[in-house]
Amino acid sequence: MTRDTRWAMVLGAAVVGSAVACAQPPASEVGTAEAALAGAQSAEAETYAAEAYHAAEAARAALQTELTVQEERFAFMRSYDRAVELAAEAQAAATAAELEATSEKERVQAETARVIAQAKAAVEEAAQLLEAAPQGKGTQADIAVMKADLASVRVLLSEADAALGASKFTEARAKATSALTAAAGVKTSIEQARAAQTGARPRPRA
After folding, report:
1. 3-class secondary structure, 91
2. Which of 11, 90, 118, 169 is close enough to 108 for a disulfide, judged by CB 3.0 to 4.6 Å?
3. Model pTM?
4. How far apart are CA 185 and CA 142, in angstroms?
């Protein structure tokens, strides 16, 4: 074996070794993508930004598939260039999901607080109408039912307030909306009862 031949073999081995050493999974990029997805999960993106969150999950699944494909190859055949690209895509998708979820939660929180305030006002208005309702024979049972209905609405509003305070915005909004509908129903019943007694027709709602 000549000197040139030995040098060519050494150089070739060095090149192959270098290629193998460089073909390592992009741990840093993958870790960053996973951290971004964890942030989206903490922001409840699955609830408040479902489509964006599912896109982030799909991007992560594509990344994991690519990593698996490379790991199943011989070391000297591995390339993680595509994995690096997919990690960046997964990170971007997860970050977008987190931002969307945060914005949507703020919107739902404000909307829920508004509905709760509306429902409380409707309950108080209905209670005042009920106090002013004519008392007489045949009305006691109806008034008792309406008072019970208002009491139930107040309980529902208390639950909505508690859910809002616990940052359970979806639950709070659902309870607040139900309370507002129920309060409006009680008010309508009171107005209809008053109209029936006085012979007047209840005013149409604006």
Report:
1. helix
2. 169
3. 0.72
4. 14
